[in-house]
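Collaborator request, handled under Task 6.
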Amino acid sequence: MSTTTTLLSDSVRTRRLTPEHEATVVATLPVIGAHINEITPVFYNRMFDAHPELIRDTFNRGNQRSGGQQKALAASVATFATMLVDPKAPDPVAMLSRIAHKHVSLGITADQYQIVHDHLFAAIVEVLGEAVTPDVAEAWDEVYWLMAEVLIDAESGLYQAAGVEPGDVFRDAVLAHRRDLSDTVTEFTFTADGFAGARAGQYVSLGVVLEDGARQLRQYSLVDWDTDGFTVAVQRDGEVSTALLDTLAVGDRVDATLPAGDLVLSDSVLAGETPVVLVSSGIGSTPMTGMLSALAAAGTAPTVTVIHADDTEDTYAQRKVTAGYVAALRDAGATVRVVERYREAGPAQGVVDVADLAATSVVPADAAWYLCGGTAFLQDIRTQLETAATTVRPAAVNVELFGPNDWLLGE
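Structure tokens returned to the collaborator:
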């Protein structure tokens, strides 16, 4: 468990609603939950009308258009409220840790929580009308600020650990090299300060100024990093990635945030004490190459299983990079198994058979699992792990999804 998660656990345990407010939230949670997807578009429209700089320079417009960010807000608020009033509800710590890291990667500061509060509650009143009595408003106001205080404290700790003032995470990154890995994926290497302390599995936000003057941000997992800079892999998908692929030349600069993310290799894995299984599909191989790089550098001869699913061998953009790290690990005495599954034009689900891999000793029991890829693929692997839990006995299952709802699959 990361330091951030431990601190969040302690913080969440001290947060409780008053009995009166708890009763009100229990009574109104079904109504709020039923209308939350109506409330959030109103909220974002109100907030962006009042603060256009947020949609221009901070929030990802693609996620807004798809509704992904709005669903993330709805899910996080509802999940936190449910946790406060239902002792059987899932622990929200993993969710809050993911959100805190994502906020730090965007340079979010404490004062912005007031902006969100004001427009969110105005939207609730607009949608629910007279149902929002003073007592209801007061109870949900407490829910919001309990959640906000936990996140603000966590984000403050992350900024302090990075040795920066809150929000001061943007650095100049200059493109030093780019190379095509496939028809759709290109590797970018930037020179920048502040990345030597990155951890395998973390990501960086890159910001590019588009033709209309908006500075849009998107997160990319780190493939490699050192005192001189970092490397990421970019797949053609969305405004930011397209702009990087089509317009960025060697010598150009972009905004880059300091590394963030809590989906990182544990100390026991890096020490070679716990076997690790790295499962990915498509561009989800990116954080796995970063993890393989760290394992190779650790020199501890770990037990590693690498499983990747893709359309074809040609679309597996980081196949050669992965093979290089695998060879280095084997040369150092590590036990490494590699499984590649290609679905051609078929669905992602079912390509990887966890029970079969366990039965043939390809995946070891009691391993730490790290998963990254598309939603359907990840849900399928999670379901298989739950079904095969008695034989696979995963020590931990860590999930990364490239989108604003990534924490939902980590529950």
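The cover message to the collaborator said: "The chain has three domains: 3-162, 170-257, 267-410. The first strand starts at residue 170 and ends at 180. Please let us know whether this matches your experimental observations."
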